[in-house]
Every structure is written in C-alpha cells, then in structure tokens.
Protein: Glucosamine 6-phosphate N-acetyltransferase
Amino acid sequence: MSKTRTIIPNGFSIRKIELSDFEDVKIVLAGLTTVGPITLCTYETILNYWNSVKLMNKPSEYAYNTSVIIDDHTHTVAAIGTIFVEQKIIHDGGLVGHIEDIAVNSDYRGQKLGKLIIDYLSEQGEKLGCYKVILDCDVKNVGFYEKCNYNQAGIEMQTRF
Ligand SMILES: CC(=O)SCCNC(=O)CCNC(=O)[C@H](O)C(C)(C)COP(=O)(O)OP(=O)(O)OC[C@H]1O[C@@H](n2cnc3c(N)ncnc32)[C@H](O)[C@@H]1OP(=O)(O)O
Structure:
C-alpha cells in the first residue's frame, strides 16, 4: 500500500521532461552538481535513448522516468527528478526503483516541491511494480528524505574514476 499520495499545489504542474526544457534543466541541475558543456544535440540523444528503454514485462512503460515540476506562471522548470527502474533476477525477477538527480531551483526551495517530486517518483515506482525504491544522498539531506518517508538502510560505497 502506498505511503504517499501526490498533491500538486496550485500554480504548478508535473510532467515528463521535454526537449524544450533544455536550458531550464541545466540551470536546475547545476544546483545539484556539475552539468558540463552539454549540447542540445547530446541532450536530445539522451532523451531519445531514455525513451527507447522499456520495461521487460510492461512494454508501454519506461525504465528511465525523468519528471519536471513546472511553474505554470513562468513556464519554467522549478524542480527535476528521475526514477530508473532496474530489472533484477533476484526476488523472482523483481524491479527496484532508483531515485536519482533530484534538484529544486534555488528560487523555489522551501515550498515543498522537493517532497512533491520525491512523492511523485515514489508513486511511479510503486505503480510500475517496484518492490522497493532506493537512493543515495549526502548526509546533509538525510532529514529531507526522512520527511519524504525514506529510512536509512545500509551505507553507500563508491570508487571514482
Ligand atoms: C538522490 C539525490 O539526488 S540526492 C540530491 C538532492 N539534491 C540536492 O542536494 C540539490 C540541492 N538541494 C535541493 O535541490 C533542495 O534543497 C532539496 C531537493 C534537497 C530539498 O528541496 P526543497 O523543495 O527545498 O524541500 P521541501 O520544501 O520539499 O522540504 C520538505 C521538508 O524537508 C525539510 N528539509 C528540506 N531540506 C532539508 C535538509 N537538507 N535537511 C533536513 N530537512 C530538510 C523541510 O524543512 C520540509 O520539512 P517540513 O515538511 O517539516 O516543513
């Protein structure tokens, strides 16, 4: 049973990422990490790639699901986030959702849009049949994710190249 039900506040909407979001997406993601000199052509190639990867047992559904919250007055991207759905062998060929690259434009922080995008992506994961949804985050954001009904589980490990 779902722990959350997404309620979109007046003045905002949520939709799938589009080609026309390119400039806004770069600005919002720059609040998370280095975006680099990505071109519109590369961005389009990535969106096309994401749209080519379907779930094995649900061919109308996508493995890569990136959503944006739009300010309906300015038509700009206020927040962004992704859920990637991984097909596993374990758990009887189960699905795990990975939440990635969450960012709220600095002008829009503190308005519950971060929680909104997490609730929305988590519900997408549940609807797509994931048995769990996981994410990695900085220690400073643990409190935020706890507000979004996520619990600490395990320790993130990495090797960087
Ligand atoms: C998996 C990943 O991608 S991890 C990367 C996360 N992204 C970033 O760090 C990028 C920069 N930061 C941001 O974009 C934003 O600050 C976010 C996404 C962390 C939070 O988004 P916001 O829209 O500002 O948060 P929102 O308003 O939804 O906060 C929801 C609740 O969490 C609390 N909260 C927000 N940030 C934090 C924090 N860092 N620590 C503790 N609590 C927090 C809020 O006070 C609020 O609590 P309340 O419901 O009791 O009032």
Notes: The pocket of acetyl coenzyme *A is lined by residues 31-32, 99-104, 109-115, 135-137, 140-141, 143-144, 147 (CB under 6 Å). Strands lie at 12-16, 54-55, 58-62, 64-71, 76-87, 95-104, 132-134.
